């Protein structure tokens, strides 16, 4: 769904699991809303208020958050990639396993770059992986729903190494290879964040398939 609001209030709303790609909002008050497992890829949320909002496993990719306020917001397992944070305010925000990639953090306000729970990459990092894992990743990206989600590849068509690293924190390489091979012909549902792949692979693991 696309959100297109201007100078209005959308307090305590539930946007959980929504694909907010290419949404365009200006000066909207989202205070207390839930953005868990939500994709904000390519969206514009300028001068918005996200006071006390939750962003667990949310993904900001190429998002414009200029002058938005994230005061007391909760970020856990959140990805910021190529995000415009010019003038964004993070006063009182909490971070757990949050990753920033290719994002200028010096233009943000009240963001402690040395805070525990934050990992920063100036650019997409290199990752050594076996040829078997690379082949399994490329196979998975042949699935139309994986391809549409863009969670395993970068805008230039390369492998999204940060998300692979996130997966390797949960599953060992052999489990990932086996999981991708099982998932590729089975996955038949639209999704928008890496959390869906994690959930799918966890289901396979619990079923003893990995």
**What is the second-level CATH architecture of the largest domain?**
3 Solenoid
Strand order of the largest sheet: 5-7-9-10
Strand content: 15-25%
Poorly predicted runs: none
Largest sheet properties:
4 strands, parallel
Question: What is the averaged pLDDT score?
Answer: 96
Listing every helix as H and every strand as E from the N terminus to the C terminus, the arrangement reads EEEEEEEEEEHHHHH
Termini separation: 34 Å
* CATH H-tier superfamily of the largest domain: E3 ubiquitin-protein ligase SopA
Structural class category: alpha/beta
Number of helices: 5
Helix content: 10-25%
The CATH class assignment of the largest domain is Mainly Beta
> What characteristic shape results from the CA principal axes?
globular
At a glance:
This protein has 210 residues and is of the alpha/beta class. It has 5 helices and 10 strands. It has helices spanning 131-140, 144-149, 161-168, 173-186, 194-206; strands at 4-6, 24-26, 44-46, 54-56, 59-61, 74-76, 79-81, 94-96, 98-101, 118-121.
């Amino acid at each position: 769904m696309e959100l297109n609001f201007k100078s209005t209030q959308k307090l305590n709303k539930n946007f959980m699991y929504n694909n907010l790609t290419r949404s365009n909002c200006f000066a909207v008050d989202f205070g207390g809303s839930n953005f868990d497992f939500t994709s904000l890829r390519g969206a514009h949320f300028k001068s918005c208020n996200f006071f006390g909002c939750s962003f667990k496993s949310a993904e900001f990719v190429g998002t414009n958050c200029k002058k938005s306020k994230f005061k007391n917001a909760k970020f856990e397992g959140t990805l910021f990639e190529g995000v415009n944070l010019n003038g964004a305010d993070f006063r009182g925000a909490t971070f757990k396993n949050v990753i920033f990639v290719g994002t200028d953090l010096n233009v943000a306000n009240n963001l402690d770059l040395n805070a525990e729970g934050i990992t920063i990459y100036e650019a997409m990092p290199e990752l050594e992986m076996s040829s078997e894992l690379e082949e399994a990743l490329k196979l998975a990206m042949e699935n139309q729903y994986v391809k549409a989600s863009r969670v395993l590849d970068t805008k230039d068509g390369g492998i999204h190494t940060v998300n692979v690293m996130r997966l390797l924190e949960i599953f060992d390489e052999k489990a990932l290879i086996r999981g991708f091979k099982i998932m590729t012909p089975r996955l038949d549902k639209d999704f928008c964040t890496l959390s869906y792949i994690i959930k799918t692979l966890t289901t396979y693991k619990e079923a003893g398939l990995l």
